[in-house]
Amino acid sequence: MNYDILNKADKVICERIEKDEIKGASLCVIHKGDTVYFRSFGMADVARDIPMTKDSIFRCYSMTKPVTAAAVMTVVEKGLLSLSDTVDMYLPGFQDQKVLKDGELVPVQQKVTIQHLLNMTAGVTYPDASFPAGTYMQNMIDKYYADLEAGKPTSTYDLANLIGQQPLEFEPGEGWRYSFCADVLGAVIEVVTGKTYGEYLKETIFEPLGMVDTDFYVPEDKLDRFMENYEFKPETGTLEPCTWQHLGLSYMHKKKPAFESGGAGLVSTVGDYSRFVRMMMHDGCYGGVRILGRKSIEHMHINQLTPQQMKMYDWEALRGYGYGDLMRHMIDVPASYGLGSEGEFGWDGWLGSYVAMDPAEDLAIIYVIQKCGGNGYRDVQLLRNIIYSAL
Questions:
Q1: pTM
Q2: Which of 5, 33, 52, 54 is buried most deeply by CB count within 10 Å?
Q3: According to the model, what pLDDT value does residue 32 have?
Q4: What is the three-state SS of 16-68?
């Protein structure tokens, strides 16, 4: 590793802080099992005068999804679940589903399976009033928040059933849509294990790996390490604390939620998340503890989308990537407009945090910021190109 090149990452991050595009950041690079770069910059919380540190706690948002994919594979390995199982075997809300076709609700021709959920090909959506199926989901989540405000929170299991009762955007398997699929998987795990999703994650992944700061909320005695989440205010041109949540998240992550979101709900630290990453990078083992078998890990970092599904998988930041098991998978390095390796996999979060794991180079990147909508994929590309150039 060429440290003269690697250290150029400092300037990229510091420039973003100086321009007030982000308030703070941490970057960790792991190469051949060694942490070759781990630095923190700026502030975790400006108002409380808390600087970024290596153990600052961040909201994972969709960096929760790789953890949920791993959790699914643990129950598969225990014989409690098959990827071909239909979801209605576990959640009655997925029985007798309807799909929107030409503005009409018609019965589905194929049931949603566990693998459909893992690949985001189930036809489920996120709340989004810009298209019909998303509008149904928006109305559902609006009622969810109204009930929450009225002191009637909805559980993980009950919300998953409500999700299943909303019309699908397309027949299962016919397209790709980023959605509540991972949250439904958390509820399925509850059914097959008899534990809450949080309990299962703690017992099966977090405690064995020593992930002591990873949970669905931040307890009071750890709030002095909790990063603020900022949003850009166009009327002032400044970053200000974000005071709202979406996707079913609640209590600003400061109180144990009834709905433990398998798609967006975890909080963690870079140190904790790096333990999960090391396990994923090394055939399911870390620190002498086996979480998953080698073949499960292999299944989790290959593209599983068909050409038809890929037509809807059209985000700019995903050029060159396929998808499967809740993660992107590099299949065409030149198409990505950057440096990398085929087989690299990972995901990011709505607040701009990012993880990439590259088995070919035995390399992993964890980048953490807390800004609504992130700071654009270009920043990640700049950092990736520096890190790969240092090899």
A1: 0.97
A2: 52
A3: 96
A4: HHHCCCCCEEEEEEEECCEEEEEEEEEEEECCCCEECCCCCEEECHHHHHHHH
